[in-house]
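Q: Could you fold this chain for me?
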Amino acid sequence: MVPMSLADNILTVSELNYRVKSTLEAQHGMVKVQGEVSNLSTPKSGHIYFTLKDSGAEIACAMFKRYVSLNQEMHLLKEGNACCVEGLITLYPQRGQYQLMVHRVSPHGEGILRKKYLMLHKKLKQQGIFDVIHKKPLPPFPTSVAVVTSPAAAGLQDLLVTLKKRFPFCALTIYPAQVQGDNAAKELCNGVLAADKANHDALILCRGGGSIEDLWCFNDETLAMTIFHANTPIISAVGHETD
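A: Sure. Below is the predicted structure, expressed as structure tokens.
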């Protein structure tokens, strides 16, 4: 049999690019990539274009307007900033340009923190910390509630409004603590210990939303054990529903 010559299988440029595009999307699909943002462009169309790079390579990225409007971490896309993006590996056929169509932006190092979180969760679960038998019943009509949080926390104002509507005669006591940063976990533990000694009907750990780094102080083993050994029923009011 005579082999088919290349001349018998000639592709147009468009055909070749669309073949490559299909192959890239089928074989790789959605990926997560971290790097440094450069060449950031924000035209009036609402789409965002930038380059994601490290010390050895770079890739062109595009983020369409519909994904921009859905992301809460768009502030991370700044020139020179490190971040993690999730998107579809593809090729822009008109230019033959290999690129990443970004659907989501998240903080740099999120994957590492999530692994730490899962390891801690597994450890505490094996110790029985999350067993239902240890859950303390909440009072149906509390008259004294402790709130461990920063007085400047955005979530505190939402909490105060809600409690005033539902339990207008309930006395609230704020136990100040940092809710972000290196010293936050220790201060939260101290707040829980102090509140637990005051015989409140319930205790609320409170703060607004934020990135995984912002909320990381609540993923602390010592804080988890402090909560576990407390006598007061404790409610988590950390982050928004999306967190």
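A (continued): The beta strands are 30-41, 48-53, 58-63, 82-92, 97-107, 144-149, 171-176, 202-207, 234-238.
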